[in-house]
Design brief:
The protein is α/β, with parallel strands linked by helices. It contains 16 helices and ten strands. A hairpin with a 6-residue loop joins strand 4 and strand 5.
């Protein structure tokens, strides 16, 4: 079965009905030909990642069959497929989704000295029952504040808490509260501030909104650049894309806004993590682990930074991305929270969002 037909088959609305047959045929074919391969379910739909996949295959001879979907779609698919799932590696781009998948038992805890030596403790999920690691963070995105440089200065928005200040009434732009990026940020704020203070803060954000939450992070940056908003929240890699763009309009837009890495004087800027795991029912566990180990290598970590403007997480890895360095000044303090703590706050966060009317 070709990569193309494999992807297409799993996107079909009736794919699950025939999945056991499809996966059995696919895996039997691999056994007959003797070729090594892994099947990846990926929420990383970035064209620049193609180089990662091709480099891995060139260096190991292991072929990659990939299914692209969003995080929620991948988790739904894995649950529906059950034991018949052909997935070997799962790549997700949000802390809350990684936590949810772990809780739902969709990952196979593994042991890898390479990964454990490379990835910091707070960016991996150790299972006390098996001693293995359920998933590993592979890159991060800082959730920063952008502001209208003509109207405000950095000190006006140097903490997340200040976004709820009444002086920003009618000035805040932000995407949907239920988007995973915001759920993770709000889950982290709950861990730092407690439920009562976080709910009051969320109520302040609603009161300060310039418009109903809509669009993605780039749309929030555009809102600030156009004057529709005064401040907004975005992940760093969206801003970095604009800074590195060859499009004149996009570069001009980026030049109109300032960037703040919040809470440098307290717990640090919130990071959202993109991570990977071996699928619970993987038929190619050893090769799946090899792929995750490859993603923690210096070359792959540099690709995350230079190819998709993400922060590398492996210890000792340096990078040369002018946009990331320009935004951060070369370094910044990031919060250090167990992802499990952020994930466990998701239900409380959603209830708070409902109570304060954050759409």
């Amino acid at each position: 079965m070709s990569n193309k037909s494999f992807k297409k088959g799993l996107r079909h609305p009736f794919a699950f009905l025939a999945l056991a047959v499809l996966s059995a045929t696919f895996l039997t074919s691999e056994a007959q030909t003797g070729s090594a391969s892994i099947n990846i379910y990926s929420a990383r739909h970035y064209p620049t990642d193609e180089a990662l996949y091709s480099d891995f295959t060139k260096s190991t001879g292991i072929k990659i069959n990939r299914v692209d979907a969003d995080d929620a779609g991948i988790l739904t698919r894995l649950k529906a497929e059950g034991n018949a799932s052909p997935a070997d590696v799962i790549l997700l781009v949000d802390a809350a989704r990684l936590w949810r998948a772990e809780v739902d038992g969709l990952f196979l805890p593994i042991k890898s000295k390479v990964l454990e030596d490379a990835i910091p403790d707070n960016l991996r999920a150790k299972r006390t029952d098996t001693g293995g690691i359920a998933w590993f963070g592979l890159s991060t995105r800082a959730r920063v504040i952008v502001y209208d440089k003509a109207k405000y200065k950095k000190s006006d928005v140097d903490t997340y808490e200040k976004l709820a200040d009444p002086k920003f009434k009618g000035k805040l732009c932000i995407r949907s509260g239920s988007h995973p990026y915001n759920l993770s940020l709000f889950g982290a704020m709950t861990e730092h501030l407690g439920t009562t203070q976080t709910e009051a803060w969320l109520k302040g954000l609603v009161a300060n909104m310039a418009r109903n939450p809509a669009g993605g992070d780039t749309d929030q940056i555009k809102g600030v650049a156009s004057g529709e908003c005064g401040v907004a929240v975005t992940n760093t890699y969206y801003m970095a894309r604009l800074l590195r763009s060859t499009n004149t309009a996009e570069k001009e837009m980026a030049e109109k806004v300032g960037v703040v890495f919040p809470n440098q004087g307290s717990w640090g800027t919130h990071l959202n993590v993109a991570g990977g795991a071996v699928a619970k029912n993987s038929k190619n566990t050893d090769n799946a682990i090899k792929f995750l180990e490859y993603l923690a290598s210096t070359s792959a970590q540099n690709h995350f930074a230079n190819g998709n403007n993400e922060w590398p997480v492996a210890k000792g890895v340096s990078f040369d991305n002018p946009a990331l360095k320009a935004m951060s000044g070369g370094s910044f303090k990031s919060e250090v929270l167990p992802i499990s703590a952020v994930g466990m706050n998701q239900i409380k966060v959603q209830q708070m969002l409902d109570r304060v009317g954050f759409k």
